[in-house]
Amino acid sequence: MRILISGSSGLIGTALTRSLDEAGHDVVRLVRRAPNSADERQWSPAIGHLDPASFDGVDVVVNLSGAGIGDKRWTAKRRKEIVDSRLDTTRLLATTMAALAEPPHTFVSQSAIGYYGNRGDEVLTESSGPGSREDFLTDLTIDWEEAAGPAAAAGLRVVHPRTGLVLASGTQLLGRLVPLFKAGLGGPIGDGRQWWSWITLRDQVAALMTLIEGDAVGPVNLVAPNPVQNVDFVKALGTVLRRPTLFRVPRVAIRAAMGPEMADELSLSSSRVVPERLLTSGFEFAAPTLDAALADLLGVVDRAA
Q1: 298, exposed or middle or buried, with CB in 10 Å at 0-12, 13-18, 19+?
Q2: pLDDT reading at 181 higher than 90
Q3: Pick from 240, 234, 245: which is nearest to 300 by CA?
């Protein structure tokens, strides 16, 4: 198949592009600079420019565009960047495809488990409703999925991978936590009872490949089948790194460091999400449990410590 990808230079996009190439697919990448290879097409979502010819022969479009959620404080400017980088790109792709005489048959448009909001211990599946529109991430994610509406109305198969915390060596989450834990300063955040729904990069890419090549429609939770509470995440990380986890991070401290809204919706929010549709389809996770995932990702770090 010929597959057009936006956001191909990010963590997930880079790994997905490699897997698609290895599987024999023809990958075309959307870039915001002048193309420097035959597999690149230029676009400018901010001004609504996308040449319809970019879709020539394309079977599937994968939209992974979006500014980082947790890498900068949520100032008014940053919030606008986060929103625009998702909604502008999704709308432009969807409306352009909807106007084509021969559009791609599938649109895989990234989403996130922020859709569900802070739900405590409630087990959340794809059939669960959204959280409160008062929460920034929930409001954003609802609009993000709705932005793909023109593609669905035009008859394309539209899939929304609702992704959780992606674990990979060197990612923002592990990149921040591992040095602290290795220094013996690791510990639960707040009361530690908030649920973290995670997935390894390897399983994230494998799941996306399944969605690209399959027939699923609508939301699909891309998380491992065993979400954990923060206190258990911390314990597992400490065990792998052979370090104590005695230093609890008070709620007031994490809110001061990240900003209240960002801390409440990222580090302190509780989303117990399970991948019901993936499991029903027979998808097999390479790392279904956190212990196995962390041992695989950080085992080399541990032995070198």
Answers
A1: buried
A2: no
A3: 240
CA proximity to 199, closest of 179, 224, 180:
224
Are 254 and 190 spatial neighbours (Cβ–Cβ below 8 Å)? yes
First to last CA, the chain: 44
pLDDT digits 0-9 by tens, 72-89:
899 999 999 999 999 999
Distance CA 279, CA 183 (A): 38
- Residue entry with tokens 């729904």: 197
Q: Which H/E stretch holds residue 240? A: helix 230-241
Residue with tokens 């005489």: 101
Cβ(158)–Cβ(217) below 8 Å: yes
> Residue 126 and residue 239: Cα distance in Å, rounded?
32
Residue 25 has pLDDT above 60, yes or no: yes
Between β-strands 195-196 and 228-229, what pairing exists: parallel, antiparallel or unpaired?
Answer: antiparallel
Q: Distance between CA atoms of 106 and 212, rounded to whole angstroms? A: 8
**Largest distance between two CA atoms of the chain:** 61
Sequence-separated (6 or more) residues with CB below 8 Å from residue 257: 263
Domains of the chain: 2-304 (3.40.50.720)
What does the block give as tokens for 148?
């793909």
